[in-house]
C-alpha cells in the first residue's frame, strides 16, 4: 500500500435542502452543511485509506452564498495530502436550482482525518499518487489554497 491515486478517494453526494435543515429564513443551517461536509470527508478518507477514519480537525469555514430551501446541495471531497496516519481532505459545497439554471459555490474547507487500525490506534496510510495531469492540478491547487488560507488567517490574528 505505497500510494493510491487521488481520484480513488473522490466522493460526491447530493441532498435536497429540506425544511428541517433550514433556519427561520428558509436557508441552510450551518450545522447541517458542516455535518454533510464531515460525512463526505469521512467517506473520502475511508475510500483512500481502506480503513476507518476519524475527524481530527477542520480548518476555517466561511459561508459564501446561501443555500435556499429546495436547492440541490452537492458536496465533493478528495484526499490531497497524507502524513504517517493522517489524511488531508478538501471538501467543496455547491448549491443548484435547476429550474433557474443557477449553480453557485457556497463553501469549502480542509479536513484532517486519522486512519485507525482494528484496535482504534492510528494506522499508516498510503501516499497520494497523481498519475494524471488533472489529479496533479487538483492536488497542487488544494495545497496552494490551504497554505494561502492559513497565511491569511495568521496575518489577521497578528
From TrEMBL:
Protein's recorded name: Acyl-CoA thioesterase
Top-rank taxon, per record: Archaea
Record GO terms (molecular function): long-chain fatty acyl-CoA hydrolase activity
Cited Gene3D superfamilies: Hotdog Thioesterase
Keywords: Hydrolase
PANTHER family xrefs: ACYL COENZYME A THIOESTER HYDROLASE, CYTOSOLIC ACYL COENZYME A THIOESTER HYDROLASE
Pfam family, one: 4HBT
Stretches assigned to the HotDog ACOT-type domain: 7-119
The species this protein was found in: Salarchaeum japonicum
CDD domains listed in its UniProt record: BFIT_BACH (cd03442)
Region entry Disordered, spans: 117-136
InterPro entries to which the protein is assigned, alphabetical: Cytosol_ACT, HOTDOG_ACOT, HotDog_dom_sf, Thioestr_dom
Keyword Hydrolase carried by entry: yes
Keyword DNA-binding applies: no
Any GO BP annotation: acyl-CoA metabolic process
Recorded GO CC terms: cytosol
